[in-house]
Write a structure and sequence with these properties.
166 residues; alpha+beta; single chain; Peptide Deformylase; 2 helices
Length: 166
């Protein structure tokens, strides 16, 4: 459908909890396409939540295919109204965000988790994710709750300027 602009802090939609999608309609399916298109058009992007493109609904896309830190990989997927079923073993690691383009930070995230939600075909989907894919899913879930990684950094000395590679 479309590559949409990605909102950056302090845009208010990024700090407000998103509303449920509920029953999938054409607007939800169009949102899924826009999330995937925008994610794919953004270099090094492995996940994108609906609030980041200005849609205050509980939906996100993730694709860690080919990422060197990925162990589990479910390919490109979109989940509507996702929820955490189980999680374990937090580990601190660096992460960044398209909505916070100039910073990275050390954030504790579960290294394994189970997440459930509705897939684009309307089916109930349960995914077991670990390592980098688990981190990406949790990062996107935070966006649906009105949080960015800065809200979860390990402390004030764990925020860093983003490195620029040329």
């Amino acid at each position: 459908m479309a590559v949409r602009p990605v909102l950056v802090l302090p845009h208010p939609v990024l700090s407000a909890p998103a509303a449920p999608v509920g029953e999938l309609d054409q607007a939800a399916l169009d949102l899924a396409v826009d999330l995937l298109d925008t994610m794919r058009a953004s270099p090094a992007c492995v996940g994108l939540a609906a609030p980041q493109i200005g849609v205050a609904r509980r939906a996100f896309a993730v694709d860690v295919t080919g990422h060197r830190k990925a162990r589990s990989c479910h390919g490109a997927f979109v989940l509507f109204d996702p929820e955490v079923v189980a999680s374990a073993e937090p580990e601190v690691a660096r992460e960044g965000c398209m909505s916070v383009p100039d910073l990275t930070g050390d954030v504790a995230r579960a290294t394994r988790m189970t997440v459930a939600g509705t897939a684009v075909d309307g089916s109930r989907t349960v995914l077991e994710v670990d390592a980098f894919e688990a981190r990406a899913v949790q990062h996107e879930l935070d966006h649906l709750g009105g949080l960015v990684f800065l809200d979860r950094v390990a402390g004030p000395h764990h925020v860093f300027p983003r490195k620029v590679y040329r």
